[in-house]
Structure formats: structure tokens, C-alpha cells
Write a structure and sequence with these properties.
This protein is α+β, with helices and mostly antiparallel strands. The chain has one domain: Pnp Oxidase, Chain A (Roll). Helices cover 26% and strands 36% of the residues. A seven-stranded antiparallel sheet has the order 2-1-5-6-7-4-3. The termini are far apart. The relative contact order is 0.24.
């Protein structure tokens, strides 16, 4: 089912490098698009593995529909974090109560 949701453009497949194992870890996450091809994502917990992985190593790979690209994650804080969470709520509807409790990132495509 997750593969279908990625293919249909409903969620993004994000691959991070595990900060402990060093292995590539795929996860599907909600996203909101930004200008220039960037997307934003937010974790629902401060100890979400993929969020901690991006803090340790911001290089990642994204897949959406039939596209895939390398990106660099930039952690968002303050008003940027709040705007990312707001955009995700507007896109996906009522969130889990904890959405935004963890880190949020802008995933910037690498040239």
C-alpha cells in the first residue's frame, strides 16, 4: 500500500542513513511542496529515527510518483517550523496531536 501512495503522490519516500547502523533506512512521510522543488516534512516526536538520522547526516534521497532525487535536509526552527506544520495540517487534514512535536525539515534538491 505504501508503494501505491508514493506512486500516486500522496506521501514521499524518504531514505536516510541510520546514525547508529549506517544503513539506508526508507520511510514514508507526509510532505508539502515548496518553490524550487523543495519539500517540507515534520516528525511527530523528538526521537523519531528518521528525524534524528537527518540531524546526524542531512544527505537523503527522496521518491515521489515516478521521480527520485538526492536532497539535503535543513532543519526548520521557530516560524519556519510552525509554517511547515501548518502546511502539513492543511494538506492532510486533522493531524495526530503530536504532529510538530519533533523536528521539521526542508528537503532541498541537490543539483
Amino acid at each position: 500500500m505504501e508503494d501505491d501512495l508514493v506512486r500516486w503522490g500522496r506521501v514521499l519516500r524518504l531514505e536516510t542513513t541510520g546514525r547508529v547502523t549506517g544503513r539506508v533506512r526508507p520511510v514514508t512521510v507526509g510532505f508539502a511542496e515548496r518553490a524550487g522543488g523543495a519539500v517540507v516534512v515534520a516528525a511527530s516526536s523528538p526521537d523519531t529515527a528518521w528525524g534524528l538520522n537527518l540531524i546526524a547526516d542531512p544527505a537523503c534521497r527522496c521518491r515521489l510518483e515516478d521521480r527520485s532525487w538526492e536532497a539535503v535536509a535543513r532543519e526548520l526552527e521557530g516560524p519556519e517550523h510552525a509554517a511547515a506544520v501548518r502546511d502539513l495540517i492543511l494538506k492532510y487534514g486533522t493531524p495526530a496531536e503530536s504532529l510538530g512535536s519533533g523536528p521539521a525539515f526542508e528537503l532541498i534538491p541537490r543539483p
